[in-house]
Each structure stands twice: as C-alpha cells, then as structure tokens.
Model the fold of this input.
Amino acid sequence: MPILSYEREGSIVHVSMMLCVKSISAVLLLTACVEAPPRMVIDPDLEAMEADYIIFGLTDNVTRGGVRLFVLEADTALIFEDSTIVLLRGNVTLTSHNEELGTERAVVTSDRGRLDKSTNEMLAEGNSVLLIRADGRRIESYQLVYRAEDNHMRSDSAVVMYDGDDVVEGTSFISDLKFERLDIRNARTRGGTVRF
Amino acid sequence: MSSRALRLPLVGLALLFAGTEAAGQQSSCDLQSSRRVLSTQTNQARVIYVSTPRFECPDGTRIEADSSVTFEATSFTQLFGNVIFRDGQRELFADRAQYFSNVGRLQAQGSVRLMNLKDGSSLAGEDLVLLQEGEDRAEEDVVVRQGRSHARLVPKVAPDTTATEGSPGTPQPDRVESAVPYEVDADLIHLVGDRLFQARGRVQVTHESLQFYGDSLEFQQDIGWLTLFENARIISQDTVSGDTMDVRGDTITMDVPDGQMEEIEARGRAQLLAKDVDMRGPTIRLAFVEEELERVFAVRRAVEKDPTPVIAGTDPSTLFANPAQPQALAEDFLLTGDSIEGDFPAGELERVVAIGAARGVSTARDSLNTDATDELIRTDWIEGDTIIATFQPVSPDPGDPPENRPGGTQTRKRQMDLLVARGQARSFYRSAPDSAAPGGATSPEALELNYVVGDEVRLFMKDGEVERMEVDSPTGIYLQPTRRVAPAPPPPELDSSTPGSPGAGDGAVPGGNGPPGGNGGAQ
Done:
C-alpha cells in the first residue's frame, strides 16, 4: 500500500480542554455576587460530539509518494483518536489531481463527507456533485464515493450524469475518474445520448 | 383471372432507420430503459454495452433487445436476443441484428420478420440485409435469404373513381381494402425501394385462386412489369366456373400497369391450357380487357430447319414436337400456323385463327382407324394460308343441371361450328361407307376418302362431325372402296413393309368434290 501523508490546515480545538474551561467558569459563577458574568455558550451539537478534535476550515492535502492525489476541504472536520474516520461538515470539496500532470481532474462537492483514512475512501453525501474538469461532465447524486486507491467513483443512489446536452440517469454507477469505464445500473438517457 | 394487385406496397418494408438519418450519418437515440449500461472509452471512442436496452430515436423508432453493443468509432451496433425495431409503421423482429450506421446497413438473423403495420405486408426469413438510401445508394435495398423466405404483400387498391365519398377533387389516400395478400415463397427475396421486387429459387406466389411459379421472379412496380424466369407457370382458377387457365413457358412476362392485368406473354416452350384450348408454341401472348382474357396470340419463331409435320391422334407430347410453329388444340382439332390467334370474348372461346402455313388436324374420328389404316389416311386435315375455326356453345340437354344452361353459373361447353381454310386451301376427309359389310362381316370397313383443293374450303360442323362442305374453285378426288371390308392386318410373321393402301385399285374421280359421306358437291 502506498504511503499517504496528510497536511492539514485550520483551527484545531481539543474537545476535552474546552470542557475543562467550561467547568472552571461554572465555579467562578457560583462564587460570584449578584452580577452574573457573561456566559460562554457552546453549541449543543458541538457539545454532544464525541470527537476528539474538531478542525474548522479544513484543507487536507493527500499525497502519495510526494505527489498530490487530492485536496479535501470542509468547514468542519471531526477527528476521533480511536478511529480512522473523519467526519466532514459544510461545503465539503474534494479536488482530485492528475498524478502525472498535477492538474485538476475532478471536483466533488457535497454538504457532508466521511473520509476513511485507512482506505482513503471519501464519501460525499447530500447534494453531491462530481465535475470532470476536462470535458465539463457533471454527475449528481445523493451520495458519491471516491476511492483514491484505485481512482474510482461510485454511487449507490440515484444518479444523473450531464454531458453537454446528453443526460444519463441511473440508479447507481461506478466509474474511474477518466470515465473510460462507466457502469450505470438501470440507465436511461435524454438528448440523443446513444449514437448508433 | 384476377389481376388486382400487382401494385404492391413495397415501399415501407425497407425503411427502418431510414427516417432518422441518411446512411453514413449517425443516428442519435435515447435509452428509455435498461438494466445496465457499461461504457468503455478507448482512443476517443466509446464502446457501450447495454443490458435489455429500450432505445427510442427522434423519429419515433424504438429498438429493443436482450442486450446490445455499440462501437461509436465504427458506428457499429450489435443487438442480441429478441431484437425488435418498431417505428409506428413497421416492425422488425429477429434473434440478432447488426447495424452499420456509417454505411447504412442493417443485418438481422434468426426468425426475421419485417412487417408493415399499416397494411399488413411482411417479409420473413432467416437472414435479412437492409441497405439504407444514401449518397451512394439511390434507393433502399432489402434482401432476405437462407431457408425459405416468405413475403406477404398486400395490394394497394387504387381509389374507386366512381366512389361518391368525399368532395370532388379531394385526394383520397390509398385504400387498403380487405385485400387478399400475395403470398410469396422463395429462396431469396430482394426489394429495391418501392420500384423493384425480386424473388429467386423455387418461387411460388399465391393470391386467391391465382398461383405463379418460376425459378425466379421480378416485378418492376413503376412500370407494372412482372417476369417469371425459367419453368414459369401461372395457374388461375375462375372462382365462379371453376375453370382453370394454365400458362407455362420458359419465361412469362405480365404487363400490369396501374394494377390492371393487360397482357401475359409466355416465351420458350410456351403453353396455354384452358378449358377449351391447349395452345403451344415458341411465344404465346394473352391479352386481357378488364381482367378478363380477351385474346390469345401465338407466333412462330424463326428456325433453320423445316417444321416437323404434326400428326394428330398421338401422344400430345409428340404433337407439339415442332417448337418453331405454334399449335392450338381445341376440342379434338389441332391447329398449327405461323401465328395463331384465339378470341375469348367474355372469357369464352369463340374463334381460333391460324395464319401462315396453317394446318388443322382432327382426331375426332380416330375410331375409324384400325391397325391396318395407313398413316397417310389416319387423320382428317385441312390446310391453307389461313384457317379459321369458329366455336359455338353446345345447346344444353334437357337433363343438364340448371347451372349448365344459358345464364347458369357454369360456362357451357363449346364445339367447333365452322372451319374455313383460305388461300391454297386443301382438305382431306374420311368417312365410313353407308352400307354394312356384306355377309355381316365384323371386320372394319374400308374408308371413303375425300381430298379437295380450292381457293377456300368451308367445313360446317355439327357435334364434331362435318355436316357440310363448301369449296371455292374446287378440284380434288373422291375415293370409294369397291371392297367393303378393309384388309386384315398382316400377321406378325409376315413382312409388313408394304401394307396395302385402303382403296388401292379404286378408280379416281378426277375433279369430283365428294361430300363427306359421299353426298354433296363442290360449289
């Protein structure tokens, strides 16, 4: 297995430190007089998270042998010390690069994401869109799964692929990022896609 | 003979795909449904595998199959299993099909059926090749082969001009009445646009009571010309009377402009077998008026050798040994001439005319012959530059069924009524002597012989016998036997090389015109 490295940028907060600060503040409040000092409000969702780290404004460059495979961006990333899974929240963007040329090959955007660091499999979920830079082809689905190991993209949800005026719809698909081998289940087309 | 019809709906059978794009261009269609699509791309071209595809093209053409493979680089598509092409007017069913869009070629194999939904016409066979119209091809071209190909061609009936429906001047679409289709079976069927229909290999065409046969067939619809090649045969049965007309020849052509049968021509060992006539010759031509046989012509073919004399009363196959000169056998009368014309007004034989070295031989009185009768006098005959035989219907007997009487559904039997020879006319007629043999002998009697030459000879017939004879400028001979009993045939052990002639030693009657039966005279 090729060695992958991650270079992360963003504001990292250790969640246990944050809870400690919260406790001290509470004691101070109890010993205070009538005037109540300003309270620190913590997002309940954030408070409920069991992540060990939270990264705001994540930009993650994933490389193989020093060559950039893809760049992962998200508003928030939740990291767990006992798991290889990284949960991504908000404006998730995965930009795949051509290993030979270093140019952008495809961009995946979604509402949420789930990156498995052990397999480098990225699940984009919610309004997922795959855009092929070379020819402008676009694939939309509820979810898209990108596997960096073999450069494959797949979806087990309903999928719509736009290629110029051609539209292909299916219930699932799997393809390499060059779209040299595209496999669509229950496909149907619009716009005269099949040329005899 | 019914001829409605030969205006066949060839157009439309060959047009699948044709409406979408011309040959040489790609047809862009959509996949309405499928189970799975696998697209692989190499060298800027895709190969698309589709499981259970249901394609639909912009012109409405639908294509279905169990699976398909499209090679975009070569514009080649293969379809496998339960292939269906359907465009609203036509359907193609096959086990497999291949389409080469860049050359406009569609191939289909396995239980192929191409159907015109509009009128029910169809083609069926094991292997079909369809070539689209394009820059290199002016018309669609369809070939069905392998096994026994079949075509069902429903005739388009031209609108009835006397119909009162619709406003005057309003163009009426082609009506497809409850027309009985032409069923064509052949080893190979070939269509070129809506212009040409060809069938090869044991061709058989059936249409109601009409049947065509031939080694091959060609129908040029634009000029209404149908040809049957080799071992050609047309059989037509009158649905009312049940009479059958049988036309045979090496080649038969039919002229059917606007779907109306106007002429049939049989060439090379041509033969017409009808109720009242058996005509044979190098060329026989039948003319029709309003689909009814009106006239028959037979003409001779120029040959180097002189025609072999025809002897009546022998095997019919030997009667027509001379292929150069046409011959007609009506009743027991064989007529030969350089050309023969038969008139069939209202479908009934009325007159047969032989012109040029005409000769008529009757076998009606073969009962007069014995084994000892010399070949020279075994038949009655008449010759002339022209011979005209006139026929009349036989008066019905009181016991005949009603349908055989005048006005009945059955056509009445016809008999020769008058026989006329003109120009160097000659006639030879035999008759049995009036009196019985003396002593009550049962041996066959010697015959009375009447030979006459004149400008014109007229024989008036009744019940197959010559009732009266008239001769213009007669000369001839009338021979009556002096010995009533004909000589017995020589015993087998004796030399029979010089049998005695009947009436040998009888005195001649110079210039006498003996009437049949010894009565009458020249006029």
User: Anything to note?
Assistant: The helical segments of chain A are 15-31, 44-48.
